Structure formats: structure tokens, C-alpha cells
């Protein structure tokens, strides 16, 4: 078994960031949550179909909002107020992408998404937006198909982007035809969700199985979009995809509080040339540490035969000075980066609040 740095535990589900002090859940909602559609009737109807434009931020967020609301009753047995609904991770990630400027046109050929243009526009040239589409359209349409949304399966149509239309499925039949395995995985999740005997942990495994399948479908199609970004941002995108495999293996619970806390460690803006963790001055120590850790996890994943399944990263103590020095000597870390990891052992904590 290959060596996996123990601090990787903080990046694959053994992390719990406390949201100290009194707060309201409404303060943590994604941007424009309250303004986004919350029911199908909030969208326009043409020829008996609800027509949704997923290339507008608020309209895509509305799809997530309906999904979270329609599935709320199935999570009541785990906790009140929909707080254990692990589908919250999807709109929260979308909100983070919007807030940090990752949905804009990275080629700058259009003003899509920029403050001086259409701020709500989602660019089809954005790698983040295209990956997110597969984590919005497919789970949403599969939910409609499963009957969990309460409308017939032929009553929803998504509008295409201004270009590369053939890369995106727009209704249930086209998604099932183009991505049958992934749509089946989402349908299995919703079927299990409706079963009274399903446990939270079992459902979480089905969620991650469908999530990773959507991600892999999208990555194969849109990897070339990373060419629009700086090297640090493109590397971060690749690092994030690798990290999700480990989050899935650790059954990270993508509930509202857990994801809200975890996202505090993600970059608050698009990375530019010259950004190098853990020395990014306008990032917090936590954000610098997480960014560095994601990159090192990717390096280890590439350089060894370690996989999320063969190496359990959550069974080790915090990384010692000796261990960080050992990685430094292998060339994976500079001496100052290794010291940076030593300074932040407190990020390695067990997950709190798991509900069976």
C-alpha cells in the first residue's frame, strides 16, 4: 500500500469546520436563493412544458431549490428542517462558483457573468459551469423521471447554450440516451430515498456514486476548457476533481452545515498566475492550507498506486514534523510549505453530527 499523507484526512471528509457564534441558516444560503424560482410554476410554460434557461444563474439555482424542497420530506426521519438533506451540497457549490467568479466567460470574448455585462449570465466557456451543468441537469431531470417532483416526465425542457449545443442534454429522453449509466445511478438514488428502510449512510453512498458518474461524464467532454484559465486555476480544477474521489470514499456528508463549513477552505476568487499556496496573501491560513493540500493529494494520487479505496486517509493522526520533512525531502514540498502544514494540524478533526 502506498503512503498517503495523514493530513489528507482533512481534505477527504475528516474535517469539521465550526461555524462559531450565533447565526441564521438563511445567512448561509447561496446568493439569490430567495429570489430564485421555488416551484415549477415560477418558470414560463410553452406547449405544455416548463421551459428553463440553465444558463442564467438564478434559473439554474431554481432547479436546485425545487430539488431540495421536493425531497425534504424524505429526510425528515434523519433531522428536522431539511438540515440533513445531502442534496444541499449541489446548490451550495453552485453559489460558491458564482460568488468567486467561476461562472464568467474565462476567454473574455463576451461580457457573460461580469459586473459590467450580464452578471447572472453563465458562460458555456466556463469549465466550472459546464461541469456544474452535469451536476444540475442530470440529477434534476432524473428526479422528475423518478416521480419525486410530482410532474410528468415530458413536461420539462432545458434551453441550450449559445454554442456547443450537442454537448448538453436538454430533456429526460436525451439525457437517458446520451448518459444512460449516470441517469440510472441518479434514479437508483431517488428510488432508495423513497424507501422507508434506507439509512442515511446507505443513501450517501448512492449519492456519491451518481455524483462521481456525472463528474466523469462532464470531465471527458470539457477538459479542454481548462486552457482558458491560468495554470494555478487549471491545476486547482484538476486537483478538485481528484479530491472528490476521496471525499466520496470517506462518505463526506454533503449537508448544509458540513458543506457551508468546508467551503470556507476553498479559494474565494479565481486563481491567477503567481498564486502559490500557502503564500497567497489575500487568502486565509485555512484556504492556503486546503489549496496546498489538494495539490499534494493530487501529486500523491498520480505518483503512487494509492486509491481512495485502497488507502483510508482517515485512520491516521495529524502529520508530524518528521513526516512533513520526509515529504519535503522527496521533492513534493518545499521546506516552507512543509512547515505550513505543521502549523495547521487543527484542521484534522473527525466529522461531527453524522446521523444514521
Automatic annotation (TrEMBL):
Pfam families: Leg1 (PF05612). The keyword Signal applies. Keywords: Signal. Residues 1-22 form the signal peptide. InterPro entries: Leg1 (IPR008499). Transmembrane segments: none annotated. GO terms for cellular component: extracellular space. This is Protein LEG1 homolog. It comes from Neophocaena asiaeorientalis asiaeorientalis (Yangtze finless porpoise). The lineage of its organism: Eukaryota, Metazoa, Chordata, Craniata, Vertebrata.
Amino acid at each position: 500500500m502506498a503512503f498517503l499523507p495523514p493530513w489528507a484526512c482533512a481534505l477527504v471528509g475528516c474535517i469539521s469546520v465550526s461555524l462559531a457564534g450565533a447565526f441564521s441558516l438563511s445567512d448561509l444560503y447561496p446568493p439569490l436563493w430567495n429570489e430564485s424560482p421555488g416551484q415549477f410554476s415560477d418558470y414560463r410554460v410553452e406547449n405544455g412544458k416548463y421551459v428553463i434557461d440553465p444558463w442564467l444563474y438564478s434559473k439554474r439555482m431554481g432547479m436546485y431549490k425545487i430539488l431540495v424542497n421536493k425531497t425534504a420530506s424524505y429526510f425528515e426521519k434523519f433531522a428536522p428542517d431539511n438540515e440533513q438533506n445531502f442534496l444541499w451540497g449541489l446548490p451550495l457549490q453552485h453559489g460558491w462558483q458564482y460568488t468567486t467568479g467561476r461562472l464568467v466567460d474565462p476567454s473574455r470574448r463576451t461580457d457573460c457573468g461580469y459586473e459590467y455585462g450580464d452578471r447572472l449570465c453563465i458562460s458555456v466557456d466556463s469549465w466550472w459551469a459546464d461541469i456544474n451543468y452535469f451536476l444540475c441537469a442530470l440529477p434534476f431531470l432524473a428526479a422528475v423521471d423518478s416521480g419525486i417532483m410530482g410532474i410528468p416526465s415530458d413536461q420539462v425542457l432545458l434551453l441550450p447554450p449559445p454554442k456547443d449545443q450537442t454537448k448538453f442534454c436538454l430533456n429526460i429522453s436525451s439525457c437517458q440516451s446520451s448518459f444512460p449509466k449516470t441517469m440510472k445511478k441518479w434514479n437508483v438514488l431517488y428510488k432508495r430515498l423513497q424507501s422507508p428502510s434506507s439509512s442515511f449512510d446507505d443513501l450517501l453512498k448512492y449519492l456519491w456514486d451518481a455524483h462521481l458518474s456525472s463528474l466523469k461524464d462532464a470531465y471527458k467532454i470539457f477538459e479542454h476548457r481548462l486552457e482558458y484559465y491560468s495554470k494555478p486555476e487549471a491545476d486547482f480544477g484538476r486537483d478538485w476533481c481528484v479530491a472528490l474521489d476521496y471525499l466520496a470514499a470517506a462518505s463526506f456528508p454533503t449537508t448544509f452545515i458540513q458543506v457551508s463549513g468546508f467551503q470556507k477552505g476553498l479559494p474565494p476568487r479565481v486563481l491567477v498566475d503567481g498564486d502559490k499556496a500557502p503564500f497567497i496573501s489575500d487568502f486565509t491560513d485555512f484556504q492556503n492550507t486546503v489549496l496546498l493540500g489538494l495539490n499534494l493529494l493530487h501529486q500523491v494520487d498520480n505518483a503512487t498506486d494509492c486509491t481512495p479505496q485502497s488507502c483510508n486517509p482517515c485512520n491516521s493522526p495529524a502529520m508530524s514534523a518528521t513526516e512533513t520533512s520526509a515529504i519535503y525531502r522527496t521533492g513534493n514540498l518545499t521546506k516552507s510549505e512543509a512547515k505550513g502544514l505543521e502549523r495547521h494540524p487543527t484542521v484534522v478533526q473527525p466529522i461531527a453530527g453524522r446521523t444514521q
